[in-house]
């Protein structure tokens, strides 16, 4: 959060809506949320046929699944991801990708705000990682 504030103070610029959302989300974040968010965004983004993207994690490790689900819930609560549900009313238009979604029928789609948070993590990665030593 301090990085975003200092950047705007230095440039005498205004905050964007997405930066304000990220600042509010960071108030509720812990290192686990941010580490798992980074993993999700770097390793679990899948393109949909309609051009959109969604989060899909293929882990079979229950611990990983629980961690990712908690992080996705944190992202939804903080307006970084949105929850989508598969439309089960029209089976005729369903393709293979939609049928795959039926496994859970609910999936997560990153909002534009997620790119702001990814950029922020990339910008402060060296500082953030050094605090963990």
Write the layout of secondary structure elements.
Elements: H1 2-11, H2 17-27, H3 31-43, E1 45-47, E2 53-55, H4 62-77, E3 81-85, H5 96-101, E4 106-110, H6 112-130
Antiparallel strand pairs: 1-2, 3-4
Q: What structural class should be given to the helix and strand makeup?
A: alpha+beta
Largest sheet: 2 strands, antiparallel
Total number of beta strands: 4
Tertiary shape:
globular
State the distance separating the first and last CA atoms.
21 Å
Could you please describe the fold and organization of this structure?
The chain is of the alpha+beta class. The chain has helices spanning 2-11, 17-27, 31-43, 62-77, 96-101, 112-130; strands at 45-47, 53-55, 81-85, 106-110. The strands form two sheets. A two-stranded antiparallel sheet has the order 1-2. Strands 3-4 form a two-stranded antiparallel ribbon. A hairpin with a 5-residue loop joins β1 (45-47) and β2.
Name its key features.
133 residues, alpha+beta, two-stranded antiparallel sheet, two-stranded antiparallel ribbon, 6 helices, globular
What would a concise description of this structure say?
Helices cover 56% and strands 12% of the residues.
């Amino acid at each position: 959060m301090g990085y975003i504030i200092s950047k705007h103070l230095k440039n005498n610029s205004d905050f964007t809506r997405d930066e304000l959302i990220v600042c509010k989300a960071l108030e509720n974040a812990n290192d686990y949320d941010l580490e798992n968010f980074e993993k999700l965004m770097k390793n679990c983004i899948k393109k949909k046929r309609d051009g959109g993207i969604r989060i899909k994690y293929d882990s079979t490790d229950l611990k990983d699944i629980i961690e990712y689900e908690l992080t996705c819930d944190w992202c939804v609560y903080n307006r970084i991801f949105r929850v989508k549900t598969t439309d089960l009313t029209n089976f005729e238009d369903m393709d293979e990708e939609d049928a795959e979604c039926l496994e859970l029928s609910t999936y997560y789609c990153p909002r534009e705000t997620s790119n702001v948070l990814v950029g922020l993590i990339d910008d402060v990665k060296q500082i953030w990682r050094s605090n963990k030593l």
